[in-house]
Amino acid sequence: MEIAPKMPKSWNQASKPHKFCPGCGHGLVLKALGQVIDELGIQDRMVFGCDIGCSLLSWDFFDVDSVQTHHGRTTPVMVGIKRANPDLIVVAYMGDGGGYAIGSQHLVNAATRDDKITVILVNNTNYAMTGGQMAPTTMPGQKTETTPYGRNVEEAGYPMMGPEMVAAISHEGAYVARGSVARFRQLKNFIKKAIENQMAGRGFSFVEALSTCPTNWRTNAAQTWSFLEEQMTKQFPPGELKTPVVKEG
Ligand code: SF4
């Protein structure tokens, strides 16, 4: 008997096989999101926005309305869609390059304004699609194409602590968390809470997902896991950084 893989209903069954490299963490983040869309029954109300970089390879993953933008502009595009259609549930999906570098102003302003959207940002510590250059999240001492001797914080500064920043500037209805693809159920729970927070109309919701990029890290399976679990989680501790104040009545 042939057993078909269990796919979230929201996945686009007509799409081609995914285009991520073997061992890439993007697929796990998207699987978590797909399961949440199904569990919340919001497939018909969902608008999925993806950025440039490897995150754009998600544009035909879901059987939902989708839009692709560039360089962190996914956040303001989803803000516009949400403001024009408040009943829609919108998710802006991006990488650390787009969200924390070129598009950081959009993230800061959406969190400060308390726009009621959900941003999911994948942190794999490098600019992946362009070949593995130093990103805002590259860790001290980490080797990349543009830091061949390791990131020297005296020259290149310290990595961006995105959820910590968003937690500091957002308002009492915000939800902010950092998960990891190595802890799938926790990551999915964070994504679910972030979308539920948007559905309740409480405030801005943000989840950073620690993810793998074995292609640019140049790691085998064991090294990839060790880099994620032993090095990244020390620099970027997973957990909830802010939960919304729920008002009675
Ligand atoms: S380059 Fe890295 S982030 Fe991009 S698809 Fe490959 S493993 Fe994933």
From TrEMBL:
UniProt keyword annotation of Iron present: no
Coiled coil: none
UniProt-listed PANTHER family: 2-OXOGLUTARATE OXIDOREDUCTASE SUBUNIT KORB-RELATED, SUBUNIT OF PYRUVATE:FLAVODOXIN OXIDOREDUCTASE
Domain Thiamine pyrophosphate enzyme TPP-binding: 61-208
InterPro entries: 2-oxoacid:Fd_oxidoreductase (IPR051457), THDP-binding (IPR029061), TPP_enzyme_TPP-bd (IPR011766)
Primary gene name: vorA2
Annotated Pfam families: TPP_enzyme_C (PF02775)
Enzyme Commission number(s) from the entry: 1.2.7.7
BP term (GO), one: cellular respiration
Top-level class of the enzyme under EC nomenclature: oxidoreductase
Protein name, entry field: Ketoisovalerate oxidoreductase VorA
UniProt keywords, alphabetically: Oxidoreductase
Gene Ontology MF annotations: 3-methyl-2-oxobutanoate dehydrogenase (ferredoxin) activity; thiamine pyrophosphate binding
